[in-house]
């Protein structure tokens, strides 16, 4: 019995030695996968710990009234608006807390798609860093509509003035706190966000009757400040029409195509309109030609159809024409090869 135990022990040791020698070949991928899932679990644990701490310290959903919102003075009473406000009341407090989220500052996320892949958090404001030579900055991540979208432009209620100068458009402006805040992320940030790899930009639009529409552009890019953030757009698809290419006619394309145009603001005229400044007439910073078939940074007119000296509304010409100012707009980006769960063509 003694010698049998010894024999078995020796055999077991030999097997163990054999496995230990072969493991770098056999176990490599498994170990890596295990490490990844441990990392994910650690992340989840950190989030959960943070949530519990805040639940105890701040009662989590603390009473918080957003600036400018007063249910007694609301005059818009259509259903989309009511829906917005109901949703807003229930969720804005949560997003407000997420901004303070210290943990995300240490993740070194290059964009919202990376955050979505790693943690699948809810939509909200997070800090990203597309370029390691740059400081991290705050963006709104749309984790619905398939998830992983980094939002770089948004109009919702017209409270933010979009008639800004070059420096404001370069560095960004607006509010970065609540889910329906309006902002321009800034050309410098947009440049760093779009310069890496192949991407897909989605433009979400909504009219004043609550109908939504969208346009996709593959490999949407802008150049750097030396070239005045010139717009380059790839293949269009969608239902709202290819307004960035100016529309269907040759004349429209000659005067209104935005792809290939430099960025202009009220104090920097880089457009092709020799007699004047498109940015001044349209009261917006944008990639003007002579001048445009779409301008999502235009003047905010309530109720859609508007009359003015110039077609300077929030406009997507191929959908509602140049004399209809849109109610909601969003411009957002994610990698072209993004394995999502949705179609990416849903509601805003
Ligand atoms: Ca000009």
Observed structural traits:
Fibrinogen_CS, Fibrinogen like 1B, two-stranded antiparallel sheet, 33% helix, Gamma Fibrinogen, Chain A, domain 1, 348 residues, nine-stranded antiparallel sheet, binds calcium ion
Explain what the structure shows.
- The longest helix has 31 residues, at 28-58.
- Helices cover 33% and strands 16% of the residues.
- Strands 1, 2, 3, 4, 5, 6, 7, 10 and 13 form a 9-stranded antiparallel beta sheet that branches. The protein has a two-stranded antiparallel ribbon with strand order 8-9. Strands 11-12 form a two-stranded antiparallel sheet.
- Mean pLDDT is 81; it is low at 54-79 and 86-100.
- It has one domain: Gamma Fibrinogen, chain A, domain 1 (Gamma Fibrinogen, Chain A, domain 1), CATH 3.90.215.
- It is built from 9 helices and 13 strands.
- With 348 residues, it is an alpha+beta fold.
- Calcium ion (CA) binds at residues 269, 271, 273-274, 276-277.
Shape: elongated
Which series of helices and strands comes N to C?
HHHHEEEHEEHEEEEEHHEEHE
Tell me about the biggest sheet? 9 strands, antiparallel
Q: What CATH architecture would you give?
A: Alpha-Beta Complex
Poorly predicted spans: 54-79, 86-100
Structural class: alpha+beta
Strand % is 15-25%
Q: Report the top-level CATH class.
A: Alpha Beta
Number of domains: 1
End-to-end CA span: 75 Å
CATH superfamily: Gamma Fibrinogen, chain A, domain 1
Mean pLDDT: 81
How many E strands? 13
User: Approximately how much helix is present in the residues?
Assistant: 25-40%
Query: According to CATH, what is the topology?
Result: Gamma Fibrinogen, Chain A, domain 1
Bound molecules: calcium ion
């Amino acid at each position: 019995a003694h010698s049998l135990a010894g024999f078995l022990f020796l055999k077991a040791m030999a097997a163990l030695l054999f496995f230990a020698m072969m493991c770098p070949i056999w176990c490599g991928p498994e170990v890596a996968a295990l490490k990844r899932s441990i990392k994910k679990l650690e992340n989840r644990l950190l989030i959960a710990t943070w949530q519990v701490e805040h639940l105890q310290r701040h009662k989590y959903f603390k009473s918080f009234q957003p600036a400018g919102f007063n249910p007694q003075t609301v005059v818009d009473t259509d259903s989309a608006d009511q829906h917005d406000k109901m949703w807003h009341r229930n969720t804005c407090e949560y997003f407000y807390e997420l901004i303070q989220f210290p943990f995300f500052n240490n993740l070194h996320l290059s964009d919202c798609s990376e955050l979505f892949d790693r943690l699948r958090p809810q939509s909200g404001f997070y800090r990203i860093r597309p370029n390691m030579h740059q400081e991290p900055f705050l963006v709104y991540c749309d984790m619905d509509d398939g998830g992983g979208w980094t939002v770089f432009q948004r109009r919702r209620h017209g409270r933010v003035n979009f008639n800004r100068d070059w420096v404001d458009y370069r560095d960004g402006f607006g509010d970065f706190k609540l889910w329906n805040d309006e902002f321009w992320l800034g050309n410098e940030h947009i440049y760093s966000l779009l310069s890496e790899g192949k991407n897909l930009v989605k433009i979400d639009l909504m009219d004043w009757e609550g109908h939504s529409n969208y346009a996709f552009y593959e490999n949407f890019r802008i150049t750097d400040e030396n070239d005045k953030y010139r717009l380059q757009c790839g293949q269009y698809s969608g239902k709202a029409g290819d307004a960035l290419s100016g529309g269907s006619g040759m004349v429209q394309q000659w005067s209104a195509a935005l792809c290939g145009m430099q960025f202009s603001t009220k104090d920097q005229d880089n457009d092709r309109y020799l007699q004047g400044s498109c940015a001044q007439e349209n009261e917006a910073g944008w990639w003007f030609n002579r001048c445009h078939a779409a301008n999502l940074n235009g003047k905010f007119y309530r109720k859609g159809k508007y009359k003015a000296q110039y077609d300077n509304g929030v406009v997507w010409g191929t959908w509602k024409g140049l004399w209809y100012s849109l109610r909601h707009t969003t411009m957002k980006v994610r990698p072209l090869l993004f394995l999502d769960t949705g179609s990416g063509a849903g509601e805003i």
